[in-house]
Amino acid sequence: MNRKEMDFAVFCIESIADRLKLNGAQVYEMLAEASDILDTYIVAHFEPLHTQGREYIVNDILEFMEEEGLLK
Length: 72
Hints:
The protein has helices at residues 3-20, 24-33, 37-43, 46-49, 54-67. By secondary structure, the protein is mainly α. It has one domain (3-67). Helix 1 (3-20) packs across helix 2 and helix 1 (3-20) crosses helix 5 (54-67).
């Protein structure tokens, strides 16, 4: 993971945490430990995702998390 991807991953984690009213560590655990969404989705799709707005990115990742059974 390069610096831009890492910064984007942190942005995504903190944005999702804000939306879900959780802390960043809880969201990191969901995305990197309970699943592989951080690596296989967020970092892997950095190029198209980082060009979108915050709301789109958060909604897209939350939808993916729901599909993976991480959210009810």
